[in-house]
Design brief:
Order of helices and strands of chain A: HHEHEHEHEHHEHHHHHHHHH
Number of domains of chain C: 2
Helix content of chain A: 55-70%
Chains: A alpha/beta, B alpha/beta, C alpha/beta
Helix content of chain C: over 70%
Structural class of chain C: alpha/beta
Largest sheet of chain A: 4 strands, mixed
Largest sheet of chain C: 4 strands, mixed
Radius of gyration of chain C: 31 Å
Shape of chain C: elongated
Oligomer: heterotrimer
Strand order of the largest sheet of chain C: 2-1-3-4
Number of strands of chain A: 5
Largest interface: A-C, 109 and 104 residues
Number of domains of chain A: 2
Order of helices and strands of chain C: HHEHEHEHEHHEHHHHHHHHH
Distance between the termini of chain C: 20 Å
Shape of chain A: elongated
Strand content of chain C: 5-15%
Number of strands of chain C: 5
Number of helices of chain C: 16
Strand content of chain A: 5-15%
Chain lengths: ~400, ~325, ~400
């Protein structure tokens, strides 16, 4: 036991002596959390309150009639969209070009016969150009749809009233028609803002932080913490290769130290470092970025510990199999990055095809991320994440057994 | 001056910050000789070689190789020297032939001669059969030989070997020493630094002894030993020696010095071997029982000891 | 000048190292494939499964579920009780559930106010968001019908008063009329997207990863400046009649050759493996590739010139590459980033390299379409190289 602890201690001393190690263990993940948190905080809108976001919509109004002006007025009334008007006879082409070339994200073209057709009860289509690279047009389109729906209802209401009147009592006089349309249009106007049905969303789980940047960090922090525990852990395989190269491992085997102790120590120091890294990242996340890590410290410790164990086992395995430091480095990079991508650390698994979701659970990362979602987003506790924890421990066991078999001194 | 020396160093000084690594050193190396720079670690040998190989400019003084000043005509000087660094400086993942081809090109060996010269040099270092193998598959000794070969391809006027035998096995060491001798036999001038006095004695026609940045003596081995009036030493280990024994020997006109330390008497004399019978009979008659007798020739160790008051071997730890 | 021998020697050493090849080719190709697996292909996002619950009769719930799912196979709505729905969402088994209010039909007909609640799993932001969108569209449709029918009904009642028989008749008429009328609205919005190669995420990420890993490879190349110093071969070179400028030139040349090979191979591999079309102008692709190679190799050289050991180059360089890749959009679609972020990105090499390749892939821009990117990248390369060379030769 003493030898295990001494070897563990020695390796941690070696690591601590290397200042750049701290940068990799802590500096880079914090930087990544920061950038991703900022980038994804406002659903594409940046670090402003989403309610105050205004999107720009380029408009080419080719219609000389009054109804297009009314449409634009209604759009402006929403206070959600800034209109950028294009003038001239080629405005329609211009709008399309600007969007195609990526200078504007979306554009609305009102056709020349817009007023005329609507007045005569014919169908007419507005043209909405959007740049597929941007997410803003989605919100613009939603606002536009709402206004168009209302215009449709208003237009139909007067017609419906007239039609219903003739059905019951025969054709109305022009005066009646006018009275009917005024009445029905007033009704629509009044009840539109207070519709019978509204939609509300109830989030089952922990409440999200109220300020927007923190919301971005809430989602980036757990994934990046896992990714860096994995990446750094696998990179530590290099140290095992170096120990063989410097012959210190060989020397250790000539000392009265059991093979099992050497392997255990190699596993142990990696595990301790992983836990240290995870705890610092959790604390920084909570204090600096305002991340709420859920209500179950026990669950969080269990998940990080089980994941750290799996990573440490894989690291020792990799260090035993690799023949050169470069080989270990390349393999660590390949494994860490592809496992991060597969396990849903880079993008949520829910938006991938079923086969991908299965592939994500062939590696430990998928399970660890599931557990993180349960703890951090849903507010679950240790009992709910036990299946994930056990699975991660099974990975750890499998990697460690393989590492023990592959372990060699030269 | 009929023939200019291959290497001429005059009043060379090299300072690093406050530390003077080379302090007013002067010496010359004649064409065709093996010149040894002998001295303990940190004596300034490697710095001297670095200045001569244009790696570092001198603080003051003059250093010329084949008549070319190392600072003013650095490229010219570099094309006339071959340098064999102390550590193996080769590309491990390239083969011996590829390494040699690269270094040959760096020294401007014409492309059409390159192949032939590589074959020749590999023959010389006895590695022709391993030409296409990667350097990292070579043993330590083989790497050393390729390391030397890389400094020879351009047929330099002078070869610098900086401690080429540090930390290698006796077999490889002997190989290298023999290789240097045979290269010299073919006319190559060699500047050889070492802190092993046996190597200097074995290889070098002339030797410069350096200590603490200064050149404390230059000459052939004989010149050096004679210059300090070095003597042979008779060492006798015996029981029953007393201090009187030393006194008796000191009084003898043929003996310069005698001392008794812990049952061992050391007698210094110009012609020690001739005195041996006298010494033995005198000791026997005084009642001492002799266990062993040996006679040491004067050597560079004594020279170094005489000049610096310390042993060269003390530094060889 | 013997710089080309040094460059050639470096290239041979690097190409002989299998790990270089892993970093150069395997990793970017593998990551592109994984991304393609995640987002590309025909399968797309997996089915959005959600539950619908309410106190109405079962067939009404089923109807509502069908209405919510809008008949698309992408959505799978199943009826459930409210407590079961709540449990399933809380446990993370379903991303969301829609809870309909009591007496939905009456509410709509009579215009009473009620709430449709979407229960969402906070761990599933995207799918629960989709369900919410579905619910909102469903509700908007019901609201429009309700307002329309009631408007007509109330107006007529006010105009003439309605007998019970008239009320029934009017009700029957309005139900069908409103539904048909809303089904075929007067005013519609027709959406058009810029015409371009069908968006294949692999086409987006293949150049991004190529640029990122090009920088990584170049770092390991530039690092050899220090490695040669550490291994003693640099000293040896300096004892040979080789000028420092030759050495620096040779190093850049070796890096540049390697970079060109890497980027061209990645372009080739991605079109062979993933069918990415790099535009119709081979000259433009080669020009873009060679310019990118120049940029990556000289930037890496600059990093090596600013650091003192190979280990430092490794550390500083990797951090630099990761941060530039993050900022410049090598790791995620930067088009979705906030405006300020995108402006900052323009200072990175990655941004311009992607921008050029994306022009080629998505807009089939010829040489004329990417001249701006070429100028910026070559300008960056020149500045980086001159700085690096000055620092390295002076040292």
């Amino acid at each position: 036991m003493r030898s295990v602890l001494s070897i563990t201690w020695l390796n941690m001393r070696l690591l601590a002596a290397d200042r750049s190690a701290f940068f990799w263990l802590l500096g880079m993940p914090v930087a990544f959390t920061f950038v991703f948190g900022i980038a994804f905080s406002g659903g594409g809108g940046g670090d402003v309150d989403p309610d105050e976001i205004r999107y720009a919509l380029t408009v080419a109004d080719l219609d000389p009639g009054p109804l297009s002006d009314e449409l634009l007025e209604r759009i402006e009334e929403t206070d959600e969209i800034d209109l950028l008007m294009l003038e001239g006879p080629d405005a329609g082409e211009e709008a399309r070009r600007l969007v195609d070339e990526g200078e504007r994200s979306s554009a609305l073209v009102i056709p020349p016969d817009f007023s005329a057709r609507l007045a005569s009860g014919e169908r007419v289509a507005l043209l909405f150009h959007r740049n597929p690279d941007r997410t803003n047009p989605q919100a613009t389109r939603r606002t536009l749809d709402r206004i168009v729906a209302r215009l449709n209802v208003e237009a139909l209401a007067a017609e419906g009233a007239t039609e219903a009147y003739s059905l019951l009592w025969g054709d109305p006089t022009p005066g009646t028609v006018r009275r009917l349309s005024v009445g029905v249009e007033q009704f629509v106007r009044e009840s539109w803002e207070t519709p019978p049905l509204t939609v509300s969303v109830e989030r089952l789980g922990r409440s999200e932080p109220s300020d927007v940047p923190a919301m971005g960090f809430q989602h980036s922090s757990p994934a990046i913490a896992l990714m860096y525990v994995l990446l750094n852990g696998l990179m530590f395989s290099i140290m095992l290769v170096e120990e063989r190269r410097f012959r210190t491992l060989n020397r250790l085997f000539t000392a009265p130290v059991r093979r099992a102790s050497v392997i255990t120590a190699n596993f142990l120091w990696r595990f301790v470092v992983a836990m240290f890294q995870a705890s610092v990242l959790v604390v920084i996340g909570a204090l600096v970025f305002g991340v709420d890590w859920g209500g179950s410290p026990g669950g969080l410790v269990a998940v990080f510990a089980a994941f750290g164990a799996a990573v440490s086992g894989l690291s020792v395995l990799l260090g035993s199999v690799a023949r050169t430091t470069r080989q270990a480095q390349s393999a660590a990079l390949v494994l860490a990055l592809s496992m991060s991508a597969l396990g849903g650390l880079w993008w949520p698994l829910e938006i991938t095809p079923r086969a991908y979701q299965i592939a994500g659970h062939v590696v430990p990362t998928g399970w660890a991320m599931d557990a993180m979602h349960a703890l951090v987003s849903r507010g679950h506790g240790l009992p709910e994440v036990l299946p994930e924890v056990w699975t991660l421990l099974a990975f750890a066991a499998a990697f460690s057994v393989a590492a023990t078999l592959a372990f060699r001194s030269e | 001056m009929a023939r200019e020396p291959v290497i001429l160093v005059r009043d060379l000084v090299k300072r690093f910050d406050s530390m003077t690594a080379v302090d007013h050193v002067s010496f010359e190396v004649e064409r065709g000789e093996i010149f040894g720079l002998l001295g303990p670690n940190g004596a300034g040998k490697t710095t001297t070689i670095s200045v001569l190989s244009c790696l570092t400019p001198p603080t003051s003084g003059e250093a010329r190789v084949c008549g070319m000043d190392v600072t003013k005509d650095s490229l010219g000087a570099r094309s006339r020297i071959g340098v064999v660094p102390q550590e193996v400086a080769l590309y491990p993942s390239l083969s011996a032939r590829e390494n040699l081809a690269f270094w040959g090109r760096m020294y401007g060996v014409p492309e059409r001669e390159l192949r032939e010269r590589i074959d020749g040099i590999l023959e010389t270092v006895q590695l022709a059969s391993r030409a296409s193998d990667r350097i990292d598959t070579f043993s330590g000794g083989m790497k050393r030989r390729v390391n030397i070969a890389a400094g020879l391809l351009h047929r330099p006027d002078v070869l610098f070997l900086d401690e080429p035998t540090v930390g290698i096995d006796p077999q490889t060491r002997r190989n290298i020493l023999e290789l240097v001798l045979s290269l010299n036999a073919d006319g190559l001038t060699v500047l050889y630094t070492t802190h092993y006095l046996e190597e200097a004695e074995f290889l070098c026609q002339r030797i410069g002894i350096m200590d603490e940045g200064r050149m404390i003596a230059v000459g052939t081995r004989r010149e050096l030993t004679e210059s300090i009036g070095a003597t042979q030493v008779i060492r006798v280990v015996a029981d029953g020696l007393d201090a009187d024994a030393a006194t008796w020997f000191k009084d003898s006109p043929d003996i310069d010095e005698a001392s008794v330390i812990e049952g061992k008497i050391s007698i210094h004399a110009r012609v020690g071997a001739n005195l041996l019978p006298t010494v033995v009979s005198r000791l026997s008659s005084s009642g001492a029982s002799i266990h062993s007798v040996e006679v040491d020739d004067p050597n560079l160790e004594s020279v170094f000891l005489h000049l610096t008051g310390k042993s060269l071997r003390e530094n060889d730890q | 000048m013997r710089a080309h021998y040094i460059g050639w020697k470096d290239l041979r050493i690097r190409l002989r190292d299998r790990n270089t090849l892993v970093l150069m080719l395997l990793l970017p190709v593998a990551l592109t494939a994984i991304i393609g697996f995640a987002f590309g292909g025909d399968s797309g996002i997996s089915t959005v499964e959600f539950l619908v619950a309410g106190t109405e009769e079962d067939d009404l719930i089923s109807q509502a579920a069908a209405g919510l799912g809008s008949g698309s196979e992408m959505f799978q709505a199943e009826p459930a009780t409210e407590s079961a729905a709540r449990e399933a969402v809380a446990a993370g088994e379903k991303p969301a559930a829609v809870i309909l209010p009591e007496d939905l039909t009456e509410t709509v007909i009579e215009g009473r106010r009620a709430e449709v609640v979407v229960l969402s799993d906070p761990a599933s932001r995207i799918k629960s968001g989709i369900v919410r969108e579905l619910a909102e569209r469903f509700v908007a449709r019901l609201n429009a019908g309700s307002i329309l029918s009631r408007g007509v009904f109330e107006t007529l009642a006010e105009e003439r008063g309605l007998s019970e028989a008239e009320q029934r008749r009017l009700g029957g008429f309005l139900f069908g009329w409103a539904r048909d009328a809303l089904e075929e609205p007067r005013l519609t919005v027709e959406q058009r997207q810029a015409e371009r190669q069908e968006i294949d995420v692999r086409a987006y990420f293949a150049p991004s990863f190529a640029v990122m890993f090009l920088l990584f490879t170049m770092l390991t190349s530039a690092k050899t400046i220090h490695e040669e110093r550490e291994a003693g071969t640099y000293s040896r070179l300096m004892t040979a009649p080789v000028a420092r400028t030759t050495f620096v030139g040779g190093k850049l040349l070796g890096s540049y050759l390697l970079a060109s090979i890497q980027i061209l191979l990645l372009v080739l591999l991605s079109s062979l493996l993933f069918g990415i079309r790099w535009g119709s102008s081979p000259i433009a692709v080669v020009a873009m590739s060679l310019a990118t190679a120049a940029g990556a190799s000289s930037l890496a050289l600059l990093i090596a010139s600013l650091t003192r050991t190979s280990r430092q180059t490794d550390n500083v360089g990797t951090a630099f590459v990761l941060i530039m890749s993050l900022l410049g959009g090598s790791m995620w679609p930067i088009e979705q980033a906030p405006e300020g972020f995108r402006s900052a990105a323009r200072f990175t090499f990655n941004y311009w390299a992607h921008s050029g390749f994306k022009e080629l892939v998505f807009n089939d821009a010829g040489l004329a379409g990417i001249w701006q990117e070429l100028v910026v990248i070559l300008g960056m390369s020149a500045v980086a190289f001159v700085l690096a060379a000055t620092l390295l030769v002076r040292r």
